Amino acid sequence: MFNLRYICFNARIYVWGSLNEKLHANGVDIVYLSNELRYLWWEYYPFKSLSSSFNPRNLVVLKLYNGNVEQLWNEDKYQDLRNLREIDVSFCKNLRKIPNLLGAVNLKRINCIGCTSLVELPCLNDLASLESLQLFGCVNLRKIPDLFGAINLKIFNCGGCTSLVELPCLCHSTFLKDISLQDCPKLKKFRHMSSNIPKLESVRRLGVPNCKALESLPELPPYMLFLEAEGCASLERVEFTDHNLNQFDSLDDDANKQVFLSFFDCFGLSQDSIKNIQTNAMLQIRYLAQRLIRAGRYQRKSNLDSIFYCFPGNEISTNEFEHLSQNSSLNLKIALNGRSGSRFLAFAICLVPDLTQCPILSGLEFNCKYQLTAASGEEFRSEFMFLYRHGNDLHYTIDHVFIPFGEDMIVKDNDYEAASFDFNIHMRHGREKFEVNVKKCGVHVFYVDAESFVVSAATEIINFSYIGGEKGKGGAKRWKYFDFL
């Protein structure tokens, strides 16, 4: 097999009805590999290294998932790696280092998830094509080399690197979209995001939970899809760049959007930061409502588009939510439509539950039932449900404010003049479920032009024109959940 170019060996084979996940070497120390090899995918690779005679000059993809490998190829001589595009050595728990990658100018992905013995990475400066660096769970890795040359890096994941003491500068990586730094307790110098990652305008997902030393998150893009900062006890400052709705226009309107920004137990947040978070939540809701109405995606069963914000506090902003209540129900008047055209109603809700007396919980279940009434007596009923599940049990020591939103909170206005809301929240702990008291609730009504999709205040005189929508009585019951590890 001197000219063998392709190996794909899935070692998860069934023997006598049971799963056998390992290929035994049967006394063989190494296996010959052809120098013509382009693609090597060998799960549970049983040997400690690749063949010493193997030259990876033609290798494009290397996948040794869950292998027994301790080293890859021979570093005593120069290796031509210009064809290499991907390295995946995930869960190779005996691997201590990645070999020299000089010359791997076309390498796009390095995946070392769960390499618990990995203590050293090679120089990565020449990897201009690198798009993804996955190091999650490399618990013995103390340092990541500079990435100045990785100008096309999009995914950077060093979550769970519990020994990591210093981050590389990512100032040249202007295309970053996904950053995960969760559970890196030894990042003592990581106080300000801008010191390592000064340009965040392209970032859509940022995970920094339990970064105890983190003090500020400045210049966040307002259109972020995911930001988890749970347990950042020192976090004081959170700022978003210019809250301009036009910045959302460049996003893909056809793709579903699930927005999740959580600041659980960030009890050091300043009042200005909390205000910034609330303002950005309302901006996201406004944009999503316009987008869903434009696409005709509202009051539907799929409910693939949703928003969830959480931050410490027990006050609902009167600037953002004009209708307030000190309990779990709320009634409001809907502003009259002064013209003959059509419009849509989108309801943003805000809740403050009493969680301080709750035991450790693993999930929260939000339920909003609302009814709209027209002057003719016509009624519309709907129900919005949102289930937030978390991978780790949480214990709330302070009050938190929640702002959930989904497709079921948008309806076509059939000359409704009043609305009533009833909120229920339940906590989950294992298989048990407990009702939680709702201390405060708030509602804001967005009035959206059915033709131009412009959002207007209740006091403005608006010219609407009809483009269609659901009529008559109706109802919907939706579930939405997030699962985060």
From TrEMBL:
Domain of life: Eukaryota
Database matches in InterPro entries: Disease_R_plants, LRR_dom_sf
Gene3D superfamilies cross-referenced by the UniProt entry: Ribonuclease Inhibitor
Protein's UniProt name: Uncharacterized protein
Organism from which the protein derives: Hibiscus sabdariffa (roselle)
